[in-house]
């Protein structure tokens, strides 16, 4: 059972106040892009996880746990529990999504494991677990997991886990600049709170950008580029000042939109056409402002059996 699962970029990440449970209320416009991890699930004597870089992908997998802490292993245990079976499965994860890169790679692997294990253990004719059930189980594993199951483009509220699909038209062309070394998501949220407190600013209550939704619905790349926003960007730049150079380089080299992806440190650039994306990728590569330059398009489907 092999499942392919996409990375995400946040087209809008509006961060509201810190809640009592340690999370922030969000308005999170997720967009799945064609940069994929795969997870292969096979019957085994006990639960085991192996992680490797996907062929041709330069992904540093050093930080990914291979024990019970791996989100995919946790996903397998939750599915087994719900179906009343033992989690006797070997999970092989092949990564092309940067680790701790702000593109929800760990959440993607969890989503893929949910789909793969459900397929392995659930009744084929009358499955007990629907796609919605898997998204609900996924929400317990991480705020971004339900979206990795769903894919496409969607607006997330709450922790980001309550999703509504968004209307989009056509395909958008992206260039991603990865960085050496990840950023910790809790640290970036913490820095966001700290910067707001320092400036004496209360956290705003975020709302969905109308400009963004219109640009998506009409397939207007320039409008989308102008409407991209990320409230975590100042915090990511504060913790990793070198990202400013990367963002500026992308803008100077013709990107029609540029922002830090999620909690970073990956930076995302929008191009108007596939050809422009090729030119931008080549120019960014030459500028030496990133560890690796990767092209992708969106939206693409969520975790899918291959
Ligand atoms: O849900 P997930 O485990 O992916 O979140 C990782 C961390 O990101 C949380 O522990 C929290 O510090 C931060 N976070 C947050 N508000 C959210 C989502 C995540 O503060 N809505």
TrEMBL record:
What broad class of enzyme is this? transferase
Which residues are listed for ATP binding in this entry? 98-108
For the keyword Heme, the answer is: no
Write down the InterPro entries for this protein, in alphabetical order: GHMP_kinase_C_dom, GHMP_kinase_C_sf, GHMP_kinase_N_dom, IspE, Ribosomal_Su5_D2-typ_SF, Ribsml_uS5_D2-typ_fold_subgr
Give the E.C. number(s).
2.7.1.148
List residues of the GHMP kinase C-terminal domain. Answer: 213-285
Note the NCBIfam families from the entry: ispE, PRK03188.1
> Which family is this protein grouped under?
Belongs to the GHMP kinase family. IspE subfamily.
PANTHER family linked: 4-DIPHOSPHOCYTIDYL-2-C-METHYL-D-ERYTHRITOL KINASE, CHLOROPLASTIC (PTHR43527)
Q: What does this protein do?
A: Catalyzes the phosphorylation of the position 2 hydroxy group of 4-diphosphocytidyl-2C-methyl-D-erythritol.
Read off the HAMAP family from this record.
IspE (MF_00061)
Q: What is this protein called?
A: 4-diphosphocytidyl-2-C-methyl-D-erythritol kinase
Q: Which gene encodes it?
A: ispE
